[in-house]
């Protein structure tokens, strides 16, 4: 089996990784890396707290809607 260098990227600055995958073909290597990368950067969201209008951090974070 050959070893392939795979670049995984999320398009977010600094969220990427280069890994080596052992596989029988380039497509198999990409599939293995894609599965690993998806598990690695799996999303997780949770409410931290409700923001108050006079909160000092109200302008610190990006508002998305």
**Please, what is the average pLDDT?**
90
**Helix-residue proportion:** 10-25%
| Pattern of helices and strands | EEH
Number of helices: 1
Summarize the topology:
Layout: E1 2-9, E2 16-23, H1 26-40
Antiparallel strand pairs: 1-2
Structure description:
The chain has 65 residues and is an alpha+beta fold. It has a domain at 2-40. The chain is 23% helix and 25% strand. The protein has 1 helix and 2 strands; from the N terminus they run ββα. The chain has one helix spanning 26-40; strands at 2-9, 16-23. The protein has a two-stranded antiparallel sheet. It starts with a strand and ends in a 25-residue tail after the last helix. The model has no long low-confidence stretch (mean pLDDT 90).
Question: Could you list some keywords that capture this structure?
Answer:
65 residues, rod-shaped
Write a compact overview of the structure shown.
This protein is 23% helix and 25% strand. It is α+β, with helices and mostly antiparallel strands. The protein is rod-shaped, with a radius of gyration of 19 Å.
């Amino acid at each position: 089996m050959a070893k392939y260098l795979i670049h995984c990227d999320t398009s977010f600055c600094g969220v990427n990784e280069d890994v080596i995958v052992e596989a029988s073909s380039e497509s198999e290597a990409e599939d293995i890396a894609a599965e690993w990368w998806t598990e690695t950067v799996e999303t997780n969201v949770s409410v931290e707290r409700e923001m108050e209008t006079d909160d000092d951090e109200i302008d610190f974070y990006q508002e998305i809607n």
